[in-house]
Structures are given as structure tokens and as C-alpha cells.
Amino acid sequence: MNIHYRPTYAEIDLEAIRSNIEGLKTYLDEKTGVIAVVKANAYGHGDIEVAKAAIEAGAIMLAVATPEEALRLREEFPETDILVMGPVSPAFAEVAAAERIMLTAFSVEWMNRVLEEADKFLVPLQVHAKVDSGMGRIGVRSIDDWEELIHLIRTSSHFILDGIYTHFATADEESKSFVDEQATVFKEFISQLPEKPRLVHAANSAAALRYRQLQFDAVRFGIAMYGFPPSPVVKEVLPYELKPALSLYSEIAHIKKVEVGSTIGYGQAYTAEQEEWIATLPIGYADGLQRGLSGQEVIIGGVRAPIVGRICMDQCMIRLSKEYSIGEQVVLIGKQGEEEIRMEEWAERLQTIPYETAVLLTNRVNRVYK
Ligand SMILES: *Cc1c(COP(=O)(O)O)cnc(C)c1O
């Protein structure tokens, strides 16, 4: 079943993933744990394979967004701690307890609803209580709610408070002031606890790489584990080199020389200004090569060539300076010769972030592991 005929594929360098984690571990205190964030199919890189590499490199826990993501990983990793960071339905709590999947306790209301299910738990449910210190997404915002939430967890034999955490809204931005504000709030919430739980954590990639003083017991390492700088600001101050793990390849499926004035693709959006070599690649927006990437360059024969005309669902056309053979390799993301195209370049063109362009690479793109 693993035969793939289509020459369009993503190659994931698991050594790069391990190296990005090892670099972080060297940079942080020895006792600080790395939580590998592998939500959204490991940012498009493949959850199982990335999780395996992360555990090999010393990650202490896996973090995901949804129950389904956690269950998939549990099948493959029976022993590893798995935390669901998103707000899950209380109906999942019973399964989570049985599968030893940790959930995020993010409000008093949620906790009360889970307590109603708790008689069904065969083993206690481990939770990480969430503080909304300024992100404004999930978590408790007042000390009163915090005390109530912690009390509900600690006074029921159906729950174990394994950790507490918060999330920064601006760790990847130039200004440090809001990060400081959030850290102050979080520390106040920590000080209200009768007893410190096993794991206190706050930092995402940007905070882990920029604010050593906010590492607490563990950091949640997502985007930088895949080798993408969290933002241009963080890129300037990286404490070690991040290696991009994902390369995206295709090849020439068809090539022709067109006359001056020939038009290419839907809407005749491109017109040849001279005699030109136009090649067709079997990759399109249904693969994650979004239509907004028209004009983006690819690498072929060690030089850059532009995508011309509208990107179709399954194919796109590029303009070449000379004839190439059918089957000639084309690099959409990655290195060839002296040239390199990084995901950040796509993100910039699309006015978004590499997180989004990476997760939008679809299942149709075969992932090959190196
Ligand atoms: C996605 C996510 C992370 C990882 O963030 P990166 O910027 O990718 O490192 C950490 N914590 C929470 C709560 C998240 O949702």
C-alpha cells in the first residue's frame, strides 16, 4: 500500500528535528524538559515519525490540540505522556483517563462538567490547569476562579494535578513588555498554589529561544523544532542554528517551447513575452501549493524559475531559460546547488506565517522520511 507513483513528495529530515531539540536542550538548563508539540500532524511533517524522533532526542512529553491527535499517538506510544492543549468536550474525559491522556483544565465550568463524568473513571484523570495570563484564549483569568479550579481538582480522588501552564501572546514580537506582564500574572497564580505540581510550563518556541528566565520546568517546543524561526524578530537572535526539516519536491511532467504571445493556464493570466520553455509540474493547490503562490520561484538545475499563470488544483506551470528533460527534479522547498527556498519565503509571499503554509500541505503529498 505504500507505493507512490506521483513524483511530488515532501522529504522530512528527522535528523534535523533531533538536532533542533538537542540544540535547545544544550541552551536551556539541564533540568528543563522539552515538550514536543506535534499537533496538526506535527505541523504537516507527520505526527508519529516526528514524535519518535523527538522522544529519541529527549522530549519528555508530546502535546497536541485534539482528542483524535492524542489517541493516534497513544496507539503508537503506550508509555509517553501526552497532553491535549485544546478545550476538549467533557465527554472525552472518561476515555482520556483510561488512555492516560492528560487534559487541559481551562475553566471552573469545564471542571464541574468533567466532575459529573468522574465516577466512570477507571483511573484518575491527569490534568494541567491553564492560566489565561493575557492570551485571551482559554484558561482562568481571576485568582478566585483559579483557587476554585485548583480546589476542585485537588479535593477529588478522580484527578491528579500534574501541571499548570500559560501561553504567551507576543513572545515572537520585538517588544518584551507584554511578555513581562503575562509572566508576572502567571507567577502570581503559581504563588497561590498550596503545593507546586510536577510541571510548570509557559514558553512556546519563541519564548524558549528568547527568554531563558521563563523556562520554568518545561517548554512547549513547536515551530522551531521543525526548523522554522518563529518570526523574523526571533530569527535575528537565535541562540543556535535551526535546521529546516521539510523539503518539497516535484519533477517536470511535460515541457514545451511556446511562441511569443502564447498564454498559459486558466484565465490566460500569463502571456509569453518571447519564445519560452514552459514546463508543467504535477503539484497544485490541492497539495498545498496555494494559488497565491503564483510568481513564487522553484529551483531546477540549481537555478530559480518562476511559477507562471494561475496555479491549478493539481498542476502548475513554470518558465525555464532552457530545455530540461522530463523527470528533471524540481525543488519547491529546500536546497539544490547553491540555491535554497525556505518556507518563510512562501509565508512572506502569502502574507502569513510558516505555521500556516506548513499545515496546509495536504495528505496527497507523500511524506518520505530521511
Ligand atoms: C501550538 C502551541 C504551542 C507551540 O507553539 P510554537 O510557537 O509552535 O512553538 C505551545 N503552546 C500552546 C498552548 C500551543 O497551542
Give an account of the 3D structure.
The protein is an alpha/beta fold. It folds into 2 domains: 14-227, Alanine racemase (TIM Barrel, Alpha-Beta Barrel); 246-369, Lyase, Ornithine Decarboxylase, Chain A, domain 1 (Beta Barrel). It is built from 12 helices and 20 strands. The strands form 3 sheets. Strands 1, 10, 11, 14, 15, 16, 17, 18, 19 and 20 form a 10-stranded mixed β-sheet that branches. Helix 1 crosses helix 3 (47-56) and helix 6 (108-117) runs parallel beside helix 7. The protein is elongated, with a radius of gyration of 24 Å. The two termini are 19 Å apart. Bound molecules: pyridoxal-5'-phosphate (PLP). Pathway: Amino-acid biosynthesis; D-alanine biosynthesis; D-alanine from L-alanine: step 1/1. Its cofactor is pyridoxal 5'-phosphate. The modification N6-(pyridoxal phosphate)lysine is found at residue 39. Catalyzes the interconversion of L-alanine and D-alanine. May also act on other amino acids. Keywords: Isomerase, Pyridoxal phosphate.
In short:
This protein is of the alpha/beta class and about 375 residues long. It folds into two domains: about 15-225, Alpha-Beta Barrel (TIM Barrel), CATH 3.20.20.10; about 245-370, Lyase, Ornithine Decarboxylase, Chain A, domain 1 (Beta Barrel), CATH 2.40.37. The protein contains twelve helices and 20 strands.
User: Any idea what the shape is?
Assistant: elongated
- CATH architecture of the largest domain, by name, is Alpha-Beta Barrel
Q: Assign a percent range to the helix content.
A: 25-40%
Which whole number gives the mean pLDDT?
Answer: 97
Instruction: Give the total of beta strands.
Output: 20
Task: List the ligand species.
Answer: pyridoxal-5'-phosphate
Q: pLDDT below 50 for ≥5 consecutive residues: which ranges? A: none
Could you say what the CATH topology of the largest domain is called? Answer: TIM Barrel
- Total domain count: 2
Gap from first CA to last CA? 19 Å
Q: Write down the CATH class of the largest domain.
A: Alpha Beta
Report the biggest beta sheet as strand number plus sense, adding barrel if it closes: 10 strands, mixed
Number of helices: 12
What is Rg? 24 Å
CATH superfamily of the largest domain: Alanine racemase
Structural class: alpha/beta
Strand content: 25-35%
